[in-house]
Amino acid sequence: MTKALTVKSLMDEAHLFAKNESGYREKSLYGVTDGKAVGTYLEHKFQNALTKKYTYTRGSSAKGIDFPKLGVDIKVTSIKQPQSSCPFKSARQKIFGLGYSLLVFVYDKKDDRKTRTTTLNIVHVVFVDASRTADYQTTSGILKILDNNGNADDLVAYMSERFLPLDDIQARLLAEEIIKKKPEIGYLTISNALQWRLQYGRVIEQAGKIDRITKIV
What count of Cα atoms within 13 Å lies in the side-chain half-sphere of residue 197? Predict the structure, then answer.
Protein backbone atom coordinates (compact mmCIF):
# COMPACT_ATOMS: atom_id res chain seq x y z
CA MET A 1 0.00 0.00 0.00
CA THR A 2 1.35 3.42 -0.95
CA LYS A 3 0.97 6.34 1.45
CA ALA A 4 0.02 9.93 0.73
CA LEU A 5 3.09 12.09 0.20
CA THR A 6 3.56 15.00 2.61
CA VAL A 7 6.18 17.75 2.75
CA LYS A 8 7.73 15.99 5.78
CA SER A 9 7.97 12.62 3.99
CA LEU A 10 9.28 14.39 0.87
CA MET A 11 12.15 15.81 2.93
CA ASP A 12 12.81 12.46 4.58
CA GLU A 13 12.94 10.74 1.20
CA ALA A 14 15.24 13.45 -0.20
CA HIS A 15 17.68 12.72 2.65
CA LEU A 16 17.58 8.97 1.97
CA PHE A 17 17.90 9.47 -1.79
CA ALA A 18 20.92 11.76 -1.43
CA LYS A 19 22.66 9.22 0.79
CA ASN A 20 22.04 6.34 -1.64
CA GLU A 21 22.75 8.29 -4.84
CA SER A 22 26.07 9.66 -3.58
CA GLY A 23 27.60 6.16 -3.69
CA TYR A 24 26.06 5.06 -6.99
CA ARG A 25 28.11 4.65 -10.18
CA GLU A 26 26.18 5.60 -13.34
CA LYS A 27 27.49 4.69 -16.81
CA SER A 28 25.07 6.81 -18.86
CA LEU A 29 26.36 10.10 -17.40
CA TYR A 30 30.07 9.45 -17.99
CA GLY A 31 31.53 12.40 -19.93
CA VAL A 32 28.22 14.31 -19.91
CA THR A 33 28.76 18.03 -19.35
CA ASP A 34 25.18 19.21 -19.93
CA GLY A 35 23.83 20.23 -16.52
CA LYS A 36 20.25 19.95 -17.76
CA ALA A 37 20.76 16.29 -18.67
CA VAL A 38 22.24 15.54 -15.23
CA GLY A 39 19.39 17.40 -13.53
CA THR A 40 16.76 15.50 -15.52
CA TYR A 41 18.44 12.18 -14.63
CA LEU A 42 18.47 12.93 -10.90
CA GLU A 43 14.95 14.35 -10.84
CA HIS A 44 13.45 11.37 -12.71
CA LYS A 45 15.30 8.90 -10.48
CA PHE A 46 14.01 10.62 -7.34
CA GLN A 47 10.45 10.76 -8.68
CA ASN A 48 10.59 7.06 -9.61
CA ALA A 49 11.72 6.19 -6.07
CA LEU A 50 8.81 8.18 -4.65
CA THR A 51 6.15 6.59 -6.85
CA LYS A 52 7.02 3.15 -5.45
CA LYS A 53 6.14 4.26 -1.91
CA TYR A 54 3.74 7.20 -2.15
CA THR A 55 0.58 8.41 -3.83
CA TYR A 56 0.77 11.98 -5.12
CA THR A 57 -0.06 14.22 -8.05
CA ARG A 58 2.98 14.39 -10.29
CA GLY A 59 3.49 17.75 -11.92
CA SER A 60 4.12 18.51 -15.55
CA SER A 61 5.31 21.50 -17.57
CA ALA A 62 1.63 22.47 -17.92
CA LYS A 63 1.15 22.44 -14.13
CA GLY A 64 4.38 24.34 -13.64
CA ILE A 65 5.84 22.61 -10.58
CA ASP A 66 6.77 19.03 -9.67
CA PHE A 67 4.43 18.59 -6.68
CA PRO A 68 1.44 20.88 -7.33
CA LYS A 69 -0.64 19.61 -4.38
CA LEU A 70 2.26 20.20 -1.97
CA GLY A 71 3.33 23.46 -3.63
CA VAL A 72 6.92 22.27 -4.08
CA ASP A 73 9.27 22.30 -7.08
CA ILE A 74 12.50 20.31 -7.43
CA LYS A 75 15.68 22.09 -8.51
CA VAL A 76 18.91 20.22 -9.31
CA THR A 77 22.17 22.12 -9.72
CA SER A 78 25.94 21.66 -9.71
CA ILE A 79 28.04 22.87 -6.76
CA LYS A 80 30.31 24.58 -9.31
CA GLN A 81 27.59 27.09 -10.15
CA PRO A 82 24.51 26.53 -7.97
CA GLN A 83 21.78 28.12 -10.05
CA SER A 84 18.84 27.26 -12.30
CA SER A 85 16.04 28.93 -14.21
CA CYS A 86 12.34 29.08 -13.42
CA PRO A 87 9.28 30.47 -15.24
CA PHE A 88 8.75 34.23 -15.03
CA LYS A 89 5.25 35.15 -13.86
CA SER A 90 5.60 38.72 -12.63
CA ALA A 91 8.03 41.10 -10.93
CA ARG A 92 5.94 40.55 -7.78
CA GLN A 93 7.78 37.22 -7.31
CA LYS A 94 10.99 39.09 -6.51
CA ILE A 95 9.27 40.76 -3.57
CA PHE A 96 6.66 38.27 -2.30
CA GLY A 97 8.31 35.02 -3.42
CA LEU A 98 7.84 32.52 -6.23
CA GLY A 99 4.54 31.25 -4.84
CA TYR A 100 5.83 27.76 -4.01
CA SER A 101 8.61 26.06 -2.03
CA LEU A 102 11.85 24.65 -3.47
CA LEU A 103 13.60 21.34 -2.83
CA VAL A 104 17.15 21.97 -4.02
CA PHE A 105 19.62 19.14 -4.73
CA VAL A 106 23.24 20.29 -5.17
CA TYR A 107 25.62 17.70 -6.64
CA ASP A 108 29.33 17.35 -7.29
CA LYS A 109 29.92 15.26 -10.44
CA LYS A 110 32.97 13.01 -10.61
CA ASP A 111 33.90 10.92 -13.68
CA ASP A 112 36.02 7.79 -13.17
CA ARG A 113 38.16 7.03 -16.23
CA LYS A 114 38.98 3.49 -15.13
CA THR A 115 35.37 2.36 -14.78
CA ARG A 116 33.94 4.93 -17.25
CA THR A 117 31.24 5.74 -14.72
CA THR A 118 29.99 8.88 -13.00
CA THR A 119 29.28 9.46 -9.32
CA LEU A 120 26.94 12.28 -8.34
CA ASN A 121 27.84 13.18 -4.78
CA ILE A 122 24.86 15.07 -3.33
CA VAL A 123 26.65 17.65 -1.21
CA HIS A 124 23.59 19.71 -0.17
CA VAL A 125 19.85 19.24 -0.06
CA VAL A 126 17.95 22.33 1.06
CA PHE A 127 14.22 22.93 1.48
CA VAL A 128 13.31 26.59 0.96
CA ASP A 129 9.82 27.43 2.19
CA ALA A 130 7.71 29.52 -0.21
CA SER A 131 7.89 32.45 2.23
CA ARG A 132 11.70 32.60 1.74
CA THR A 133 11.80 32.47 -2.08
CA ALA A 134 11.93 36.21 -2.82
CA ASP A 135 15.09 38.07 -3.86
CA TYR A 136 17.39 38.92 -0.96
CA GLN A 137 18.67 42.34 -2.06
CA THR A 138 15.25 43.54 -3.27
CA THR A 139 13.42 42.56 -0.08
CA SER A 140 16.22 43.83 2.18
CA GLY A 141 16.13 47.21 0.42
CA ILE A 142 12.35 47.47 0.62
CA LEU A 143 12.35 46.69 4.35
CA LYS A 144 14.98 49.42 4.93
CA ILE A 145 12.77 51.92 3.07
CA LEU A 146 9.71 50.94 5.13
CA ASP A 147 11.70 51.12 8.39
CA ASN A 148 12.75 54.64 7.36
CA ASN A 149 9.11 55.77 6.95
CA GLY A 150 9.26 55.38 3.17
CA ASN A 151 6.13 55.89 1.09
CA ALA A 152 4.82 54.61 -2.27
CA ASP A 153 6.94 57.17 -4.21
CA ASP A 154 10.11 55.90 -2.51
CA LEU A 155 9.19 52.30 -3.34
CA VAL A 156 8.43 53.10 -6.99
CA ALA A 157 11.80 54.88 -7.30
CA TYR A 158 13.57 51.92 -5.69
CA MET A 159 11.91 49.41 -8.03
CA SER A 160 12.98 51.53 -10.99
CA GLU A 161 16.58 51.62 -9.71
CA ARG A 162 16.52 47.82 -9.36
CA PHE A 163 15.26 47.50 -12.97
CA LEU A 164 12.25 45.40 -11.97
CA PRO A 165 10.32 44.42 -15.11
CA LEU A 166 7.32 46.69 -14.46
CA ASP A 167 5.60 49.62 -16.14
CA ASP A 168 4.69 52.75 -14.13
CA ILE A 169 1.13 51.62 -13.33
CA GLN A 170 2.26 48.15 -12.21
CA ALA A 171 4.99 49.69 -10.04
CA ARG A 172 2.50 52.01 -8.32
CA LEU A 173 0.05 49.15 -7.62
CA LEU A 174 2.88 46.97 -6.28
CA ALA A 175 4.14 49.81 -4.06
CA GLU A 176 0.67 50.21 -2.55
CA GLU A 177 0.48 46.45 -1.95
CA ILE A 178 3.89 46.50 -0.20
CA ILE A 179 2.73 49.27 2.17
CA LYS A 180 -0.35 47.21 3.11
CA LYS A 181 1.55 43.92 3.38
CA LYS A 182 5.18 44.09 4.45
CA PRO A 183 7.21 41.42 2.62
CA GLU A 184 9.52 38.95 4.34
CA ILE A 185 13.21 38.72 3.51
CA GLY A 186 13.83 36.19 0.75
CA TYR A 187 17.10 34.31 0.46
CA LEU A 188 17.36 33.64 -3.27
CA THR A 189 19.24 35.78 -5.75
CA ILE A 190 16.82 36.27 -8.65
CA SER A 191 18.20 37.78 -11.85
CA ASN A 192 15.96 39.47 -14.42
CA ALA A 193 15.59 37.55 -17.69
CA LEU A 194 12.88 36.06 -19.90
CA GLN A 195 13.01 33.32 -17.29
CA TRP A 196 14.04 34.10 -13.73
CA ARG A 197 17.60 32.98 -13.01
CA LEU A 198 17.72 31.63 -9.44
CA GLN A 199 21.03 31.46 -7.58
CA TYR A 200 21.30 29.34 -4.44
CA GLY A 201 24.59 30.33 -2.82
CA ARG A 202 22.88 32.18 0.02
CA VAL A 203 20.31 29.47 0.84
CA ILE A 204 23.13 26.90 0.96
CA GLU A 205 25.05 29.15 3.39
CA GLN A 206 22.00 29.90 5.54
CA ALA A 207 20.35 26.44 5.57
CA GLY A 208 19.64 25.42 9.15
CA LYS A 209 20.45 28.92 10.44
CA ILE A 210 17.40 30.79 9.15
CA ASP A 211 13.81 29.91 9.99
CA ARG A 212 12.05 28.04 7.12
CA ILE A 213 15.27 27.23 5.25
CA THR A 214 15.85 23.58 6.17
CA LYS A 215 19.20 21.83 5.80
CA ILE A 216 18.36 18.24 4.81
CA VAL A 217 21.92 17.23 3.85
Answer: 8
